Amino acid sequence: MSGSAVCDGVDARLLAFDGKWLVLDAPRAWAPGSPMAIVADLGGATHRLDARSLGSQRQADGRFRVKMRMVSLRRASREALLAVLPTTASPAV
Question: 17: how many CB neighbours lie within 10 A of its CB?
């Protein structure tokens, strides 16, 4: 399962969340340390998320897998992310 999101004005797909790291699929890359403003649709509710990029990796289809750490995360948003997305020990970029 995945969630849809808009990250800095770009449509993206949320892939995984382990409570600390979030991974998304997007058509562009973000440099490490870049702030990221995300508006995510999680289970029918909209959540605003703030994160910092840890790096981006180009995939075979030309899109990017972006790993980020959450900067400020409300409890309701954390619970929604954990309910909607698969968890991994440490999502790889």
Answer: 26
Contact 21, 69 (CB under 8 A): yes
Residues 6 or more apart whose Cβ sits within 8 Å of residue 20: 69, 70
Number of domains in the chain: 1
pLDDT, tens digit, for every residue of 24-60?
A: 999 999 999 999 999 999 888 899 999 999 999 999 9
Residue 44 lies in a domain: yes
Rg of the chain (C-alpha set)? 12
Alpha helices in 1-93, H assignment, sequence order: 75-84
Single-letter amino acid code for the residue at 82: L
Neighbours of 60 (CB within 10 A): 5
Q: Is residue 70 part of a domain?
A: yes
